[in-house]
Amino acid sequence: MSSLKILVIPGSLRSGSHNVRLAATAMAELVQAGVDVTRISLGDFPLPIYDADLEADSGVPKPALNLKRMLGAHHGVLLVSPEYNSAPPPLLKNAIDWITRVRERDEPPGHVLRGRPFSLASASAGRFGGARCLMMLRLILSGCRATVIPNQLSLSFADQAYDDRDRLKHGADIDMLNAMVRQLIDVAQQMRQHD
Ligand SMILES: Cc1cc2nc3c(=O)[nH]c(=O)nc-3n(C[C@H](O)[C@H](O)[C@H](O)COP(=O)(O)O)c2cc1C
Question: Cα(106) to centroid of ligand 1, in Å?
């Protein structure tokens, strides 16, 4: 059987982003576990803010179709999201909204999300590490009938969480990362076998 394929999507475009950094850390763990990992930037999938009139006039933008196909080509997805005012940032929410509007062949809306394993992580320089945005993301994705795995990682005080070799330095963070990665792999493997 070919390698398990996992897609990693950071929810920030910022240079020096804590979430892009955490996505890279998680990616390294996944690679070490033998997974075939693709990390993308949502900057390569530019999308206007969702507008039903725009959709009616010009259809779903090509980057949304590309993003949907990218998801469809992977057995599982890891989202690594900043928290903006207790919620996921517009960049990520808007991408999810557009993905749910793509319909290829006779698929129902949001088909690509259904049953697909997702794990969630966040990083913030604050005490809660973006945990509130993960609650909302969990709700949003569950509403789209994705399989959101229980283990997650919210990295508090992200600006102080790494050592000088760019590795997570606190045991609790490392344990949360390992548990999340392990569970994503297990669930994605199980669901792949049932496909
Ligand atoms: C509009 C806005 C709202 C924010 N709200 C929160 C928040 O609710 N909780 C939090 O921990 N950080 C909040 N932050 C701080 C972000 O966590 C911080 O900017 C973080 O570095 C963004 O992620 P990034 O480093 O991956 O770009 C907010 C930042 C912005 C710009």
Answer: 39
